[in-house]
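Ticket #263: bound-state structure for nicotinamide-adenine-dinucleotide.
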Amino acid sequence: MSASFKGKVALVTGSTSGIGLAIARAYAAEGAVICINGFGDAAAIEKERSGIEKDFGVKAIYSGADMSKGDQTQAMVTDAIKQLGAVDILVNNAGIQFVSPVEELPPEKWEQILAINLSSAFYASRAAIPGMKAKKWGRIINTASAHALIASPFKSAYVAAKHGIAGFTKTVALETATFGITANAICPGYVWTPLVEKQIPDTMAARGLTREQVINDVLLHAQPTKQFVTVDEVAALAVYLASDMARSITGAIISIDGGWTAA
Ligand code: NAD
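RESOLUTION: The complex was predicted; output attached.
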């Protein structure tokens, strides 16, 4: 399968790290102009941005917009359209996790997870869809999770947000179906990224386990393949969903989870 995105602009939220960075680089490899977004060390982010330009010969810009703020999220999309001419492919990927029993989950963490993992997809999509409709072509890809389909204890806000993004994805797909736009959700199982690494200490505390027990008995326990999904595997799926060959796939909630949700 080859997918050329020459002449297309892709904006990937939460792409200074992990899955988002792999998706941004995979689109750049296919010729797309890129807008990356996310937090982190300024020099490291600049290295990623210029690395995309150097490695793939495409223009890449960076937005430091905070995806927990609706106004900043919308402004990021309108600025990208101003600077790059369009946002043809929007990947709503930014996300955070917090591991805690419901009754101990700080309300501000609940609000933050809902804002970043769910509401940001609404704000970015509402800013991008008019341009996509005008061009009669667009791709909206939401990074959901196996937790869009099933739950795990101690992740109530995350599971609620991810189930929410599945419903949002289907609704956007129905509203945009006759405009050459598709909207789909990718549902990875455990992918080895900083997001997973960071929840190990809290899971150790919440469940009274060692690091090895968390990796083998909690994380990989759920995945029949007993292997982490890789960021490149997720990026390859995102490339396919953005290609013209995938134009009939819309409103789909697609698992890439080593068989986790088959169980
Ligand atoms: P990561 O921590 O490596 O990357 C998260 C990205 O989001 C970073 O670029 C970070 O800077 C950015 N971000 C966080 N808060 C932000 C904010 N307020 N505004 C803008 N950017 C912000 O994590 P990852 O594992 O690559 O996660 C990416 C997505 O994949 C998330 O939506 C996550 O829920 C989802 N996911 C991850 C896994 C996994 O196992 N790693 C599994 C299923 C789904």
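RESOLUTION NOTES: The chain has a mean pLDDT of 96.
TICKET STATUS: resolved
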